[in-house]
Write a structure and sequence with these properties.
Pfam families: CheW, PAS_3. It comes from Thermodesulforhabdus norvegica. One of its GO terms (biological process) is chemotaxis. This is PAS domain S-box-containing protein. With about 290 residues, the chain is an alpha+beta fold. It has two domains: about 110 residues, PAS domain (Beta-Lactamase); about 160 residues, CheA-289, Domain 4 (OB fold (Dihydrolipoamide Acetyltransferase, E2P)). About 25% of the residues lie in helices and about 40% in strands. The chain has ten helices and 16 strands. The strands form three sheets. A six-stranded mixed β-sheet has the order 13-6-7-16-15-14. Strands 2-1-5-4-3 form a five-stranded antiparallel β-sheet, sandwiched between helices. The protein is elongated and about 85 Å long. It starts with a helix and ends in a 6-residue tail after the last helix. The relative contact order is 0.11.
Length: about 290
């Protein structure tokens, strides 16, 4: 019998204006961790376990239903007895007395957590899908969203700036624009081979507050632009619980290839905390 209840992720109820709820069966325990008796005794009120960030929308939907046809459907999160979050879809009918005051609410709650998780998985896959510029640094292949790339140029003379991190050899003048240059080899500690004749500078951009900033990364070789489907990308947070390398957010697993996907904004923000570099970045916008 208990196994049957676990499979039935729904529970019928009768609710009241003070936020208390009487459930008609024991299914609620397998959704919330709280027993039917916890709710009947008012030890727990349903409104008390709704996630605080969802409370305002939950109340707004109820008020709108009360003003109109007295029926509603709302989705929100609850905090279960063990502290986990679950998604609830609730269908309700408000019953009022002759004076128009709330007598009770009757309805059903459904646990739609698995559905929401699947929706989130598909959303993340869609966000990951896209065109990536791939390049090589040492024996490693990297990729960055093509949307972040402004130019790919050959290396021009780099002006050294004192007091900058070792991974920042200096700046270049790109058609009058001062561009800080980041050496990805040194940033990631890749020293197993030397750069060759195909060494290039990838000029990328990122936004900081209301400002768009350009910066360059030296790479050993630019490879190609690939469209990579999100289902072939694993996010680093899913692979490692801690000690993630800065800026590396995912791994694309293709035939005979593993491509480390990087976020230039995270890398540049990490490197360009240096005060001298901050001053130079400002010159992009002040005509120096």
């Amino acid at each position: 019998m208990q196994e049957t209840f676990r499979k039935i992720r729904s529970a019928a109820y009768r609710g009241y204006a003070d936020g208390s709820v009487d459930f008609f069966g024991n299914q609620v325990e397998f959704i919330t961790g709280y027993s039917r008796e916890d709710f009947l005794s008012r030890t727990v009120k349903w409104m008390d376990i709704i996630h605080k960030e969802d409370l305002s929308s939950v109340k707004a939907i109820f008020k709108e239903a009360l003003r109109t046809d007295k029926t509603y459907m709302r989705e929100y999160r609850i905090l279960t007895r063990n502290g986990s979050l679950r998604w609830i879809q609730e269908w309700g009918q408000i019953v009022c007395d002759a004076e128009g005051n709330i007598d009770y609410v009757i309805g059903v709650i459904l646990d739609v957590t698995e559905q929401k998780q699947e929706e989130e998985r598909k959303r993340r896959i869609a966000l990951r899908s896209g065109r990536y510029l791939t390049f090589r640094v040492g024996h490693n292949e990297f990729g960055v969203s093509i949307e972040n790339i402004r130019e790919i140029v050959g290396l021009s003379p780099i002006t050294h700036i004192p007091s900058c991190p070792e991974c920042v050899p200096g700046v270049i003048n790109l058609r009058g624009k001062i561009i800080p240059v980041l050496d990805l080899r040194k940033y990631y500690g890749i020293m197993e081979s030397k750069a060759g004749e195909n060494e290039s500078l990838i000029v990328a951009e990122y936004s900081e507050r209301d400002t768009t900033i350009w910066a360059g990364c030296t790479v050993d070789e630019v490879c190609e632009v690939l469209f990579i489907k999100g289902e072939f990308i694993e996010e680093m947070v899913d692979l490692f619980s801690h000690s993630l390398p800065t800026g590396v957010w995912g791994v694309a697993k293709l035939e005979k290839r593993m491509i480390l996907l990087i976020d230039v904004k995270s890398i540049f923000e990490d490197v360009f905390k240096n005060p001298e570099l901050r001053r130079l970045i400002k010159t992009q916008f002040h005509g120096m």
